[in-house]
TrEMBL record:
PANTHER family: GLE-1-RELATED, MRNA EXPORT FACTOR GLE1
Protein name (database record): mRNA export factor GLE1
One GO CC annotation: nuclear pore cytoplasmic filaments
Similarity comment text for this entry: Belongs to the GLE1 family.
Role of this protein: Required for the export of mRNAs containing poly(A) tails from the nucleus into the cytoplasm. May be involved in the terminal step of the mRNA transport through the nuclear pore complex (NPC).
Residues annotated as signal peptide: none
UniProt GO BP: poly(A)+ mRNA export from nucleus; protein transport
Keywords from the named record: Coiled coil, Cytoplasm, mRNA transport, Nuclear pore complex, Nucleus, Protein transport, Translocation, Transport
InterPro entries: GLE1, GLE1-like_sf
């Protein structure tokens, strides 16, 4: 509910502002240790990324409540936003977007980690699990860039707004596509913030959608094997439907004004 989100936001904001906060039966404050604030900023940013790769990857709609809280915190405490991006880029290089190249002397294990895979005891995680985690983090990022905390001061610019999403999309389309990953990331990104980008960039956005359909999807097809076509087919259908309707649907789970009255 909206009231529950406000509670969560106020608690985090109070903690970062140096006020004493009640948690698990005890009172804590960042002023209790010289590095208290830095530690809390670090752990909080890490926690938001974990929500992306965990919660959002399983419950896609949860990207919006998590993102709106982070957006508001980022506005008031920019350090948290900076550290969040650092954690996000390390866990999901595709959020830069960046496809790390394997350098000479890098072990397979180390390279898998650079690509975002979890490696435990020389065992690399399953591809499906990897894709799910990356999807969750990209969806969270795509939600953050379009949301403002509704009770904040709207005078300033969004700390990490839609222009970053526009840049992400442009850079993504300048990279050589990867099988599986590229189609999924583009679809996730467009589903979550395509509507907001369409409203902001109008004709330029539609030119980009045409480019994806005519030039970029065939390039993804060229590197995709017959067993990996699922996500590519969904991307194709989504782009085609949007171009035909000349409209990008609002993302499922977006927070409406009525949500904040709950």
């Amino acid at each position: 509910s909206g009231s529950k989100l406000r509670e969560v936001f106020d608690k985090i904001n109070n903690l970062l502002s140096g006020k004493p906060v009640q948690t698990e039966g005890q009172t804590v404050s960042v002023t209790q240790h010289p590095q208290g604030l830095e530690f809390v900023c670090y752990k909080l940013a890490e926690k938001f990324v974990k929500h992306g790769e965990g919660e959002v990857s399983f419950h896609r709609d949860s990207a919006f409540p998590i993102a709106v809280v982070l957006s508001g915190i980022w506005e008031l405490h920019p350090r948290v936003g900076d550290i969040f991006l650092a954690h996000l880029h390390k866990k999901c290089p595709y959020s830069v977007p960046f496809y790390p190249a394997r350098k000479e002397g890098t072990s397979v294990e180390e390279y898998q980690r650079m690509l975002g895979y979890e490696v435990h005891d020389s065992k690399v995680e399953e591809q499906d699990h990897f894709l799910k985690r990356m999807s969750g983090m990209i969806r969270l990022y795509a939600a953050i860039i379009q949301l403002r905390w509704p009770y904040g001061n709207k005078q300033g610019a969004h700390p990490h707004g839609l222009s970053y999403g526009w840049r992400w999309l442009a850079q993504m389309l300048n990279l050589e596509p990867l099988a599986d990953v590229t189609a999924m990331l583009l679809l996730d990104f467009l589903e979550v913030c395509g509507n907001a980008l369409m409203k902001q960039y109008g004709i330029q956005f539609w030119k980009t959608m045409f480019f994806i359909q005519k030039s970029y999807i065939p390039r993804i097809e060229a590197v995709t094997s017959s067993g990996q076509m699922g996500c590519l087919s969904r991307l194709k259908n989504f782009v085609q439907k949007c171009l035909q309707a000349e409209e990008i649907p609002l993302p499922k789970g977006i927070l409406t004004p009525s949500f904040w009255r709950t």
